[in-house]
Design a protein that fits this description.
Helix content: under 10%
Bound molecules: FE2/S2 (inorganic) cluster
Radius of gyration: 13 Å
Structural class: mainly beta
CATH superfamily: Rieske [2Fe-2S] iron-sulphur domain
Number of helices: 0
CATH class: Mainly Beta
Length: 108
């Protein structure tokens, strides 16, 4: 393979306190970036129900709740607890110093 994985910075650690999430954008793709008790996770921002913005929802433990109709997704697995067949894509995240970075290219 001649391609290699790379990471881009999408936020600073202190912008997303534990227990919160926000929407970030990478190359025109929106992600919900979550801080689960100090561990950062990222999933596709678009709710599979009707396209709601997950990054504008609430985080409860490792579950993010869509602000539109309340569907919840586990941000570690992408699965909906009530129906694991329904899921959002997860993106690899790492922290470098104060930088929260996601792996690109995104494979959503
Ligand atoms: S769009 Fe997310 S629950 Fe309906």
């Amino acid at each position: 393979m001649d391609s290699h994985d790379d990471y881009v910075t999408v936020a600073q650690v202190d912008q997303i306190p534990p227990g919160t999430c926000r929407t970030v954008e990478v190359d025109g793709i929106f992600l919900a970036l979550c801080n689960v008790d100090g561990t950062f996770r990222a999933v596709d921002n678009t709710c599979p129900h009707a396209g709601g913005p997950l990054g504008e929802g609430c985080l409860d433990g490792d579950l993010i709740e869509c602000p539109w109709h309340g569907w919840r997704f586990n941000v570690q697995t992408g699965q909906r607890p009530e129906n694991p067949e329904i899921r959002v894509a997860c993106v690899e995240v790492r922290v470098e110093g104060q930088n929260v970075q996601v792996k690109v290219p995104l494979t959503l």
